[in-house]
Design a protein that fits this description.
The chain is of the alpha+beta class. The chain has a single domain (about 5-165), classed as Gcn5-related N-acetyltransferase (GNAT) (Aminopeptidase, 3-Layer(aba) Sandwich). It contains four helices and seven strands, in the order βααβββαβαββ. The protein has helices spanning about 15-25, 40-50, 100-115, 130-140; strands at about 5, 55-65, 70-75, 85-95, 120-125, 145-155, 155-165. A seven-stranded mixed sheet has the order 1-2-3-4-5-7-6, sandwiched between helices. Helix 1 (about 15-25) packs across helix 2 (about 40-50). The two termini are about 30 Å apart.
């Protein structure tokens, strides 16, 4: 599959909303919000437009040759002054685009952004049962730094998360 990685644009909002809805509907689940719903296309458009003026965060997309978005990665600097050298990462890839280099390419875009933003560490959370994502992150170079018991509410239950981090060199 041929694809390009690029910065997101407000015009991507509707496709990104559909991607989030699709990925979050999978049984393995992707952490979207307490309510389990992604923001509306209008809210996503406003968010992406605001990002243009905010140097401490970015959203990258993976786009197929036909214009279909098959991946989204958000990265944002920790707002606390003592940990401003750390950025949080969120990644989603369409089911039919997995194991084709999309996730790895998006993670590489995050690393390049982090270097330019003087970030020294990328962090993310992943559900313990999401073995494919854990394998991707470990193959890329992320290391497990912690286990957070009952850290997220998902539906009517509290679920665990693995904290993983990548050192920027």
């Amino acid at each position: 599959m041929d694809f390009v990685i690029r910065r997101s644009d407000p015009a991507d909002a509707e496709q990104l909303t559909r991607l989030a809805d699709s990925v979050s509907a999978e049984p393995e689940g992707w952490l979207i919000s307490i309510a389990g719903e992604w923001r509306s296309a209008g809210d996503e458009r406003r968010f992406l437009k605001a990002l243009r003026r905010y140097p401490h965060a970015a959203v990258f997309v993976a786009e197929r040759e036909d214009g279909t978005l098959v991946g989204r990665l958000s990265v944002g600097r920790d707002p606390h002054p003592a940990s401003a050298h750390v950025a949080d990462v969120g990644l989603m890839v369409a089911l039919d685009a997995r194991r084709q280099g999309v996730g790895r390419a998006l993670l590489q875009a995050a690393v390049e952004w982090a270097r330019e933003a003087d970030i020294r560490k990328l962090e993310l959370h992943v559900f313990p049962w999401n073995e494919a994502a854990i394998a991707l992150y470990e193959a890329f170079g992320f290391e497990r730094e912690g286990f957070r018991k009952g850290h997220y509410r998902r539906g009517g239950e509290f679920v665990d998360a693995i904290l993983m981090a990548y050192a920027i060199e």
